[in-house]
Amino acid sequence: MTAVAILKSLNSFPNTQGHSYTAAQAGFLEWVFALPISICPRTAAQQALVGMTNHPVISDAGTYFYDFVKQAAQAEPLPPRRRGGRLRRKATVH
């Protein structure tokens, strides 16, 4: 599903305190896992935000979903980490 379709569906969700957040999480996960493997999630989130600008957010669940997508769009990629190098290879038992 596209982010706009999920936002529209969440806008019709009743404003119940605990359930709105859970519904937004489920919608975000559905959107992320539906992305093709070749697309960067951060780039897709940036494009989704542009697409959602014309659609008003009128429910708590929609607001949470919009915030999740916004956080994904602003996420910085993590730098590569060292995994032990020479000392890690030396400790390996053959």
For this entry, give a set of tags:
mainly alpha; single chain
Major sheet attributes: none
How would you state the average pLDDT, rounded? 87
Total strand segments: 0
- Shape descriptor: elongated
Percent helix:
55-70%
| Total discrete domains | 1
Strand content: under 5%
Low-confidence stretches: none
Distance between the termini: 48 Å
Q: Tell me the series of helices and strands, N- to C-terminal.
A: HHHHH
> What's the Cα radius of gyration?
18 Å
Structural class: mainly alpha
> Number of helix segments?
5
Quick structural summary:
The chain is built from 5 helices and no strands.
Overall description:
This protein is an all-alpha fold. The protein has one domain. The protein is built from 5 helices and no strands. Helix 2 (17-33) crosses helix 4 and helix 3 (41-52) crosses helix 4. The longest helix is centred in the first third of the chain and has 17 residues, at 17-33.
Helix and strand arrangement:
Layout lengths: L2 H9 L5 H17 L7 H12 L7 H15 L10 H7 L3
